[in-house]
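To the team - beta-D-galactopyranose complex, inputs and output below.
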Amino acid sequence: MTVTALAWSGNNLSAAPATIRPKELWPDERGQHVQAHGGGIIKLGDTFYWFGEDRTRTNDQGRRYVGCYSSKNLADWTFRNQVLKLADPENFGTNWILERPKVYYNAPTKKYVMYMHIDGPMPGQKGNYRLARVGVAVCDTVDGDYQYLKSFRPLGHESRDLGQFIDDDGTAYLIFEDRPFGFRIAKLSEDYLSVEKEICLIPEHMEGGAIVHFNGLYYVLGSALTSWSPNPNKYATAKSLAGPWSEFKDIAPPETKTYGSQSSMLLKVVGTKTTSVIFMGDIWKPKTQWDSRYLWMPVEIGGGTMRLPEPKPWTLDVKTGEAQIQK
Ligand code: GAL
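Output:
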């Protein structure tokens, strides 16, 4: 009798569609809930990498962690590494904050560059979100141990929630919330290690900023400033990133408060048959952050409108780009 190796169809080996279940626990290949809150995704070859806040309950309280996971179908995720396990790098103070990490791949330098919201208290001021900076860390491999480089205020502005946008031509942008003014879209420098140029200030007080470029239009999305509590997220459109931007409209019925979630990224999946855009949102549980959930749904998008459908289990075929919501 010949012994044939069993074809293992486990996590991360297959691009075959599998079900994505909004709001539920999302087990990785170890059976542990994915820790990539306030996250972002990049695709390298045929593999997606998801980075986000790792809020594992047993993490060392003095450190801040970024988790990295990989997948070929965006449903089955394999834990790769806690790519950052950072102790307070600049004497920010015990309550220092690291949130919403995003990773870019810089082709000229072959480095992976992580941006993150860095915050903490300031002497004489109340609250822990006073520094309002971005932090930058780099690595030679996508899922290696990132080295923290520095923090700064981008173009001299306050920066809290940040978002990542890479345009179809490969240009990399940072979206950041500048509390006194609104939120800004800025282009990164050639090596991505600094923020080079402002493209637009959108004078709306919004955070959780995300952008997608779809059929010749830019769609920008964000939430209101209500801390960990959900609110009606809104979007606007423009032909150019520099604007002019349309009025902001609700992405979902406002009474649902974005079905209890907050925007983090809009992920475009271009397939052989169609293109799907995924709303990636967080359902925060501020007292039990490790149990915060994800709300990912394909949006109905086109002609200047974007709608987040009621969350239901769904599947995505990353090859064809087709998304199917279960009835
Ligand atoms: C939210 C923000 C989160 C976190 C939180 C703290 O509005 O999106 O990333 O900063 O506030 O209150």
